[in-house]
Amino acid sequence: MEKEPSYKDKKVISIGVVSELTGLTERKIRYYEEKNLIFPERSNRGYRKYSFRDVERLMDIADQREEGVTTKEIKHELSKKEKNEAKQKMIRGQLNARFGVQKK
C-alpha cells in the first residue's frame, strides 16, 4: 500500500510565494535549480511548483551561501546526506523484513 506523501513533500507552492518566504529572488531560485540543488515539479502550463521541504532546503542553501560555502560544496554535502538516508531506509527495510517489524 502506497503511503500518502506528507504535506511537506507536496509540490504546490509557486516560485513567487517561495521567493517571498525565503527572501531569495526568483532568478536565484532558478539558479539553484540549474545547479541541481532543488528539483521543482512543473505544472501542465510549465510553471514551477515547490514543496515546503524545497523552501526549507532553499533557506538552508541561502544560509550556507552567506557563510561562504560554494554551490558545489553544498551539492556534495546534499548528495552525501541523501545517500546516507537511502542507506538507512534500506537497512530499516531489511530489518523489518527479517524481524517482522512494521512501522505504524
UniProtKB/TrEMBL annotation:
Keywords: DNA-binding, Repressor, Transcription, Transcription regulation. Residues 12-80 form the HTH merR-type domain. It comes from the Bacteria. GO terms for molecular function: DNA binding; DNA-binding transcription factor activity. This is MerR family transcriptional regulator. It comes from Rossellomorea marisflavi.
